[in-house]
Specification:
- It contains four helices and no strands.
- It has 80 residues and is mostly helical.
Length: 80
């Protein structure tokens, strides 16, 4: 399973527990209320492990974590 799909699976399984949501890669996770600030921290921790990177605190921004696609794009730049 590719990393982006693993991010989606984590969000569905760990952060959206009990919600019936058809999550898409470009869905706005923050404005929609699907993910709150505490969930973002869990997601950051999971992403660091999955992509084998360290995410600087100053880069945990709306732009980098607004959607699964945005996260994947950002995290791929850290790997290079």
């Amino acid at each position: 399973m590719e990393a982006q799909a693993k991010l989606k699976q984590f969000i569905e399984d760990e952060l959206l527990i009990g919600r019936d949501v058809d999550l898409e890669y470009d869905d706005n996770l923050l404005i929609s209320g699907l993910v709150n600030s505490l969930a973002i921290m869990r997601l950051v921790s999971f992403a660091e492990e999955l992509y084998e990177v360290e995410i600087p605190a100053e880069e945990i921004t709306i732009e980098n974590f607004i959607s699964i696609s945005a996260m994947n794009t950002y995290l791929q730049t850290l790997k290079n």
